Amino acid sequence: MSGSAELRNNGVVKNVGEARETPTGAPQEELAAGMRSDRSTRNRVARSILDHGPSTVAELAERLGLTQAAVRRHLDALVADDVVEARERRVYGARTRGRPAKVFALTDCGRDAFDQSYDQLAVDALRWIAEREGGREAVAAFARARLAAQASAYREAIETAGPDRRTEALAKALSADGYAATARSAPLPQQGEQLCQHHCPVAHVAEQFPQLCEAETEVFAELLGTHVQRLATIAHGDGVCTTFIPKISKSSDTASASTAGRNPA
Residue 178: in which H helix or E strand, if any? Predict the structure, then answer.
């Protein structure tokens, strides 16, 4: 990991909402500045643990130039947000008398909050596949194979839902995989529904390899048994991945997944 890695703005160190005026009349600007300062200091505490490993309150206070009371306050907030956790320090060799010192270590959630190189690794791997194994079609084959395992779980969720609840069932299944998906009526409800994915875990990779979006669209069509059309994607700069799903008529119940809409270029 590069030394410039910082906590991403993904809500791990949570905002506490809009600044409100206190009984003493403190201006909103002062309150907002104080909250930003707290978040910045908590990021420094978490970063210090990342750089130096599990640390005691005293070690963090010394490294950061803070009082131990201030460190404890920020650690309490980080523990509440599942960024760090308290544990006993491992003792190598003979134990000394007394309880081992309590240290604070990053949780998996906390470690993931820092910028990682996974996106670049995925891009490099797909570029290698494209160059060595057959270009765009090789990447498309990989994308379809990647989604195959997920599709089986999605299919089970859809098949247990009623005919009018299939899009909603798919949205819930996608949300369980981190896509924050919702289903809603299209602007003209009689025409169909929209599946909206408010988060995409592979958006940065899909910017360079749209085959990932295309394979996902094909899977949606197969699962829902109808032609679907991708209207927008996060990978292409839209705020939400939006897929239009037309209302299925009796004559289109057996629609082929091969008619799936393609991701816009």
Answer: none
Instruction: List CB contacts of 134: < 8 A, sequence separation 6 or more.
Output: none
* Contact by Cβ (8 Å): 260, 220: yes
Q: How confident is the model over 125-144, as pLDDT tens digits?
A: 999 999 988 888 999 999 99
Token pair of 248 as six digits: 């299925």
User: pLDDT tens-digit profile of 168-194?
Assistant: 999 999 999 889 899 999 888 778 999
**Would you state the torsion angle of the CA atoms of residues 55, 57, 60, 62, taken in this order, to the nearest 10 degrees?**
-130
Determine which helix (DSSP H) or strand (DSSP E) holds 250, and give its type and residue range: none
Of the candidates 103, 106, 88, 129, which has an alpha carbon nearest to the alpha carbon of residue 1? 106
What pTM was computed for the model?
0.58
Q: Where are the beta strands (DSSP E) in the chain?
A: 84-88, 102-106, 181-185, 192-197, 229-232, 241-246
Q: Which two tokens stand for residue 113?
A: 């909050």
